[in-house]
Amino acid sequence: MDRELIDGVTRTTAAAVLPVAALGWVIAGWPGAAGVLAGALVSLASFRWIARGARRAGMLFAGGRPGALWLLGLGTRHVTLFSAIGLCLWSEVAHPLGLLAGLSLLPPVLILFGLRTAARAA
């Protein structure tokens, strides 16, 4: 995955978190804002983990030699990130709707960057 794309998506999502977290604060107080922040952090961590795994998989298919346990590391992504979400909900630090709002920030940003890339290629 292109480094410029990864950094651009990360910066744009991070910039979008602040107003949404402020709205979460207004609607649900501290748990709402914490939920938005936690959801955005989990989605960005997942995105960056996938990007790193894709680069390593590309090395494997290009005939290179990836790290010894890259596939296992990529597979544990789900367990780690779902555990983080579960911990936020179980401890009641994050409001469930705030968490959902934070998790929902990344997909529109990815679509926007994909459309921008397709427009440049056309």
Question: Mind explaining what this structure looks like?
Answer:
It is a single chain. This protein has 122 residues and is mainly α. The protein has one domain (3-121). It has 4 helices and no strands. Helix 1 packs across helix 2 and helix 1 (3-61) crosses helix 3 (96-103). The radius of gyration is 16 Å and the shape is flat. 23% of the residues are buried. The model has no long low-confidence stretch (mean pLDDT 88).
Features:
mainly alpha; 4 helices; 85% helix; 0% strand; flat
What's the helix and strand layout?
Elements: H1 3-61, H2 70-90, H3 96-103, H4 106-121
Distance between the termini: 20 Å
Series of secondary-structure elements, N-terminal to C-terminal = HHHH
**How would you state the average pLDDT, rounded?**
88
What general outline do the C-alpha atoms trace? flat
Count of beta strands: 0
Structural class: mainly alpha
Biggest sheet statistics? none
User: How large a portion of the residues is in β-strands, by DSSP E?
Assistant: under 5%
Gyration radius over CA: 16 Å
How many DSSP helices?
4
Fraction of residues in H or I helices: over 70%
What ranges have pLDDT less than 50 throughout 5 or more consecutive residues?
A: none
Number of domains: 1
Multimeric status of the protein: single chain
